[in-house]
Write a structure and sequence with these properties.
Elements: H1 2-39, E1 43-48, E2 53-56, H2 58-64, H3 68-71, H4 76-80, E3 97-103, E4 106-118, E5 124-133, H5 135-149, H6 159-170
Antiparallel strand pairs: 1-2, 1-5, 3-4, 4-5
Length: 171
């Protein structure tokens, strides 16, 4: 009888232990997600359903020069009119795109995405604006465009450039 009681108690202790571990893991998921958002390079702004800012991550603070205290409760229009380069995103048909931001004599290009935020039931609870620095990508694109139209030996425009100009002039 004591051996079976020990087995049953051991089994119950294992279940309780597994339950506690599972509960602690579930409690730590929001903290882990928060840490990921805080440490990512992409800037994140979060707006509630009334269009008021409720959160900003560290990268967005660094890029835009705002703190959570400065943005909290302000609408997208109030925030973005403070930055002339961001005003294009106030247009209702522009959801995703690119903007240029001048920060201390350096212009950087950002890819911007606006995504709806929903709760567990699928109900809309806000929007997330994320932006990523793509300045280096744009530099490489410009260099490739330049290399595709200039002859490397002579430094003059090549045939590809000539045909593209000819096509636009004839049209």
């Amino acid at each position: 009888m004591t051996d079976s009681l020990i087995v049953i108690l051991s089994f119950l202790a294992g279940l309780v232990f597994a339950g506690i571990i599972g509960f602690l893991r579930m409690r730590s998921i929001p903290a882990i997600r928060r840490k990921i958002v805080e440490n990512m390079e992409d800037g994140i702004l979060v707006f509630n359903t009334e269009g008021k800012a409720i959160d900003i991550n560290q990268s967005a603070e660094n890029i835009l020069g705002w703190t959570i205290g400065e943005i909290k409760g302000k609408t997208m229009e109030e925030l973005f009119t403070q930055k002339e380069d961001l005003q294009a995103f106030l247009q209702p048909d522009i959801i995703n795109g690119q903007f240029h931001l001048q920060v201390v004599d350096v212009t950087q290009t950002y890819d911007v995405r606006v995504a709806p935020l929903t709760d567990e039931t699928g109900e809309l609870v806000g929007e997330m604006v994320s932006f990523r620095d793509i300045s280096r990508l744009k530099e490489v694109e410009d260099e490739l465009r330049h290399l595709s139209t200039i002859d490397p030996l002579t430094g003059l425009y090549n045939r590809r450039y000539f045909y593209s100009v000819l096509k636009t002039e004839i049209a």
